[in-house]
Amino acid sequence: MTLKHKIVTGAVAIILTVLVFSVAAVAVIMNHQQRHHSEIIIKKAYSVIEKSIREKEKHILYYSGQIASGNNMGLNMKYISENKNQAEHLIMQATYQSVADGIHTVARTASVWEAAVYDADGELTAFSLTEDNAVYVGYMHKVPDVIYEVANPEEGTAWTEALKPRDSFSMIASRLDKESIADKETVGFEIKRDFLCMVSYIPVMGQIYNAKTQAPETAQFGILRVSSRIDSAFVEEMAYVTGTEVNLFTGKGLSVGTLKAHNKIDLSLLETTGSFGGSDSRNIFFNELNVESRGFVQGILPVRSGKDCIAAFASLYSKDIAKNDMRQMLKLLCIVFLCCIILFIPVTLIFARSLTRKIEIIVKDLSDSAGQVAAAAAGISSVSRSQSQNASDQAASVEETSASLEQINVRSHNVSEITRGVRELMLTNIEKSGQCVKSLVELGKEIARVESDSTQILQIIKNIDGIAFQTHLLALNASIEAARAGIAGAGFAVVAGEVKNLAKKTTDEAKNTQELLVTDVNRVRQAVSSVRNINYDFEGIIESATVIGERTESVTQASREIAQVIEQITLAAGEIDKLAQQIAAGSHETAMSAGELSAQADVMKGFVNDLEGVIGGIGKKKSS
Prior knowledge:
Blueprint: H1 3-69, H2 73-83, H3 89-110, E1 114-119, E2 124-131, E3 134-141, E4 147-151, E5 163-166, E6 186-192, E7 195-210, E8 215-229, H4 232-242, E9 245-250, E10 253-257, E11 285-291, E12 294-305, E13 308-318, H5 319-485, H6 490-615, H7 618-623
Antiparallel strand pairs: 1-2, 1-8, 2-3, 3-4, 4-5, 6-7, 7-8, 9-10, 9-13, 11-12, 12-13
């Protein structure tokens, strides 16, 4: 492959490498930004949902106000509150129907799920309810018994014609707690039949006459409760508008939603996050999950009633959408790089052709120069090798002579050192022998003293033996006298017997001690004789060692003189050896330099050949 082709191939390889790394980097960056992009979309979705709920809130408040203030609602509720426990049903029927009709008319227009009015005591008065596409309208009366008049009219039929009495009606609360009877309008969220509902409470006001002030004044006669469900239609509309899956969860699980397979979340985990109606409705809990093998980024926003989390919206954005966007981006990037490759190849060919022509000329000149350098280096190397060999032979001869002299010198020094050591050892032995002689003399004196002391001890033992004998005689006499005394001398006879035994034991021990001392005295005398003999021998050894030391000193002096002569000869041989080595080293360095020059010429030839192989075409030109 020629240099031109290599340049083109390398350029294409670089572009492809950049393409691969760029695609990988873009994929990593887009994958990292996918979560952030998904969160932004979910936040925008919640902005749309919250805006729709705020509009729903305004909608329900508007129609609730119409019900509470229209169709003489205040006057009718005043009448019902004053007569509900006294008047018969027939008397109150028209008023009840008027209240129920006012509720039903507006409720159908507003498309609310439930609308009911309660009196000031919190008891149900009239209502309108839509359940499973069925409409229920009615009211409750207490005299003489509690009775519900409920109508489920068909399309095109007046509801008053479909009224039927019932003992109970569980689809709507018959009483409100006192906390719900407020004196001002409120709106919030409540859970009813597993549905999240927006519920408004509107006071029903009317005019009364104040006898004290003799003027009319406004008073509250009831409370209107209107409920609008967050149903599947609302959730599906939000999902369509936002481009995300939207689910609504209550405490029992999924209430309504577009992703049925995702049917439960734990509301207790959302106690610390924001919510609709809170101070920060943008505090959304994000996580990732898989539903039916599909990946989603989920944003959860709680819905609260007071401090309690009663429901939660979940907006889910599919990862598949982001992946499709990433694939489109990568395809576009690949197309751009391919176009760059197609445009870059002709430009690279032109540049490579111009470059290789100049390099071919330079390579030819280098090849000729390398041949000339190699020839000169070969001649220098041959002469240098011959000189180096002659100098090496001379240096070897001188080195052998020097080595022999060095060995003789070493041995002479060794003999000198040995004789010096022998002399010092002999002097040490003479000194120690003298000390031994002195010690033996002292030992002889001490043994003589022991012998004298032993003689004195023998005399003392003889004296002890005499005393024991006399004691024995005295004890014998005492025994005789005790025998003469008879019974009166019995005790004295016992004492005399013991003294006699003691005297006998003393005599025996004295004899044994005397025998041992005699034996020791004999041994001491023998030791004195041996010490005297050893003393005589050591004196002879000292005289012999003195003679040997004098002769050893003469040998040492002669060895020193021989060593000095050999050292002078060795120094002269060393100077000759150094001179021969310097000559050999100079010749060797010259040969080495020539060899290196030849090697560099060969290397240069190799480089030129490699460069020719890289460029291509020169060999073909030479052969042609």
